[in-house]
């Protein structure tokens, strides 16, 4: 049971990290577009 909790926690941590990475990538890739406008 605790092992399962640990796995779920690590999965949720990875998901959060991936989400912030994707958001950062999208934001930085859109910055040039905003600058040219």
UniProtKB/TrEMBL annotation:
* Record-given protein name: Uncharacterized protein
């Amino acid at each position: 049971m605790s092992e399962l909790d640990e796995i779920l926690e690590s999965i949720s941590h990875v998901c959060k990290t991936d989400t912030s990475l994707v958001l950062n990538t999208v934001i930085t890739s859109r910055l040039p577009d905003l600058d040219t406008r």
